[in-house]
Amino acid sequence: MVSSILHSLPQVLVDGLTLGAVYAVVALGYTMVYGILELINFAHGEIFMTGAYVGTAVLFGFHALGWFEGAGWIAYMLILAAAMLFTGLLGVGIERVAYRPLRKAPKLISLISAIGVSFLLQDFVRFIAELRTGNYIVTGITLYNDNHKIATSSVSGVFGDAFLKTNTIIVFIVAVLMMVGLDMFSKRSKWGVAMRAVAQDRETASLMSINVNKVIALTFFIGSALGGATGVLFAQQYATIDPFIGYILGLKAFTAAVLGGIGNIRGAMFGGLLIGLLEMFAAANLGLITHGNFGAEYKDVFTFLILILVLIFKPQGLLGKAVKEKV
Amino acid sequence: MSMKKSFVALLIFVLAGSLLAACGKKSNSEASSGGGGSNKTVIKIATQSPLSGGSAVQGEAIKLGAQLSLDDHKDEFAKLGFDIQLAPYDDQADPKKGVANAELVAADKQILAVVGHMNSGVAIPSSVVYEKYNIPMVSPSNTATQVTDRKLKVVNRIVARDDFQGPAAAQYAVQTAGAKNIFVIQDKTAYGQGLAEAFKTEAEKQGAKIAGYESITIGEKDFNGILNQALTKKPDFIFFGGLYAEAGLLVKQAKEKGLDVPFMGADGIDTQGIVDVAGDKVTGVLYTSISTDITKTADGKAWADKYKQKFGKNVDGYSAYAYDCMSVILEALKKAINDNGGKLPSREQVRDAVRATKDFQGVATKVTFDDKGDNDYAKVFIYKFEKAAYPGSMISDISK
């Protein structure tokens, strides 16, 4: 049993880290908005999904026009930029229309508004995607599809070889760049400081000549743009997307944010990677460990079990600080 | 403020008024068309298949196949003094929606029979409603054993059962492809699980070892976890009980991992969809199908051309079977009308006439229903994707 687990371990790590990186960046969007508004933005998963569709659509457009045939990386950067811009503005728009008028209302009302927006986006995208073919499952063009073999078996005989796609590396690099970028932005830049100030105490921040509305809009822009970019990465990695990918993925990313300590940016990154790894490990090995009594379909149960255990002993999440209720 | 409110009230009033007017108009026009149409009695045959969502391509093919048969028989019925019409319903591949539609079908007294459903999971609960109202249903694609094993009087199907499709696949896998160590994956639906279990039982009986039996969740896109597990078991054959969206991703992700063994599915992946999802990695994928390659025979080819000409679409796997379902129903309906002295038969009479179908030759299959509503002539066909284009080529067929 141990030897089988070790044998598949390199591949499990590769797949788990990739999925984890996707979870982590999406989790950032949840955690940033929660940090600043104490609102769980349930529409964030759908923003991720919209990003995937926008990226795929723009790429289809390039393909039809015959642009960037030889230079895949330019097309890749452009579709990332297009999706980020679109979803960023979408996020700001959602905040303006669905959350800002409710900012003084009880938290539960905004939450329901968020769920409403999420349904609206799902069906809107489904409608658009269905127009042409009558089928909303879209299979896009993959730019980097070659496979690499990592000869982990040469390190030690107990390991098997791992395979990874070029796109896996891109997913990982872009995700890390975005996470590092965001971390630097929030720690070093003036706007980042303003964001943290608003998160800490909105009223006092506004007394310090910080334009609270602008800061909140910026937070939504950045969070949503990150989500949209991840959508593009996801579409490139798995090639097939449907309007409901945001639901399960958003749920898991939210879990990652809670696991890491909601409101904490580094916590969200850590939580995302951890959830991705746990899920992949469980899917590959649960059957082995339990002698086939619990198969791969229990992977999510396993993941959420870990979440519950963590929350019992550390309710503020792994990296979260216990904060006193704001007065 | 009060201006605004009264304006809103006015808007609502206008809206409601126009809605009412629209309804009124509709019923008027219906009445006039019924009256003006030379006093023919309208008989409607419903189709129930997913016209939106992930299986819309196949569901649409069922509707169009039925439509074609209905149009072919329209004149024949006009002579008898009946106007036959199609009433397409969208069950969205959702059991709840299917049952809700079934209630609507039951409420429409002009509907005497149903072609459908596409999904066994939808047909099973919906057929309970049909049974209550005696509406015969003939399915072009339901394979789950439970569909007919409940011995409902209304349920019929013209295709093979899972407990035959699964074993036929296993026979092919073990005897022809020489598989010894098989990894089985299913998608936890009534269809996928029934198929996978039937496959597993027969494969074991034939002497192959089942390396693993695992399930996935529909709608997910990352199946690397389960495939990593398969990698460690080193199977020489993978069988998947499920639909094309998941199958395509499994095939693709398996090949990206270097898990390059024959991959077999069943009729759920018998669609253009899997080629779209898996791309050129679909090459070599095997599938059993309850539907034959209609273009292999001359008659079938002519039929497919007619279909293409009429709808501007190529035939899908279920098109011809839906055509045959409708033909079986209309044949039975004709008999029921004759037995009833040329008058409109009751639903019960149509139901019994459908079940009594014997040696009916359709375009895709011959039909004789046994006492459960299964077709005695149902066959299972084995296909292989030789290149990344649908359909694959038929390489074998296995009869009961």
Measured by residues with Cβ under 8 Å of the partner chain's Cβ, the largest interface is: A-B, 43 and 35 residues
Count structural domains of chain A.
Answer: 1
Number of strands of chain A: 4
Apparent shape of chain B? globular
What share of the residues of chain A lie within helices?
over 70%
- Structural class assignment of chain A: mainly alpha
Please name the CATH architecture of the largest domain in chain B. Answer: 3-Layer(aba) Sandwich
- Work out the helicity level of chain B: 40-55%
Domain Leucine-binding protein (chain B): 43-375
Pfam family, one (chain B): Peripla_BP_6
Protein name (chain B): Branched-chain amino acid ABC transporter substrate-binding protein
Signal peptide (chain B): 1-21
In short:
Chain A is mainly alpha-helical and 327 residues long. Chain A is 72% helix and 4% strand. Chain A has a single domain (2-313), classed as ABC transporter involved in vitamin B12 uptake, BtuC (Orthogonal Bundle).
Which descriptors apply to this entry?
heterodimer; A: 327 residues; mainly alpha; ABC transporter involved in vitamin B12 uptake, BtuC; two-stranded antiparallel sheet; 4 strands; B: 400 residues; alpha/beta; Rossmann fold; 2 domains; 49% helix; 18% strand; L-leucine transmembrane transporter activity (chain A)
Write the layout of secondary structure elements.
The complex is a heterodimer of chains A (327) and B (400).
Chain A: H1 2-37, H2 44-65, H3 72-99, H4 107-133, E1 138-139, E2 147-150, E3 162-165, H5 166-188, H6 190-200, H7 202-207, H8 212-238, E4 240-241, H9 245-260, H10 265-289, H11 299-313
Antiparallel strand pairs in A: 1-4, 2-3
Chain B: H1 2-36, E1 41-49, H2 56-80, E2 82-90, H3 95-107, E3 111-116, H4 120-133, E4 137-139, H5 146-149, E5 155-157, H6 162-176, E6 181-186, H7 190-205, E7 209-215, H8 224-233, E8 237-241, H9 244-256, E9 263-265, H10 272-278, E10 286-289, H11 298-311, H12 319-339, H13 347-355, E11 360-361, E12 366-367, E13 379-384, E14 393-399
Parallel strand pairs in B: 1-2, 1-3, 3-4, 4-5, 6-7, 6-8, 8-9, 9-10
Antiparallel strand pairs in B: 10-13, 11-12, 13-14
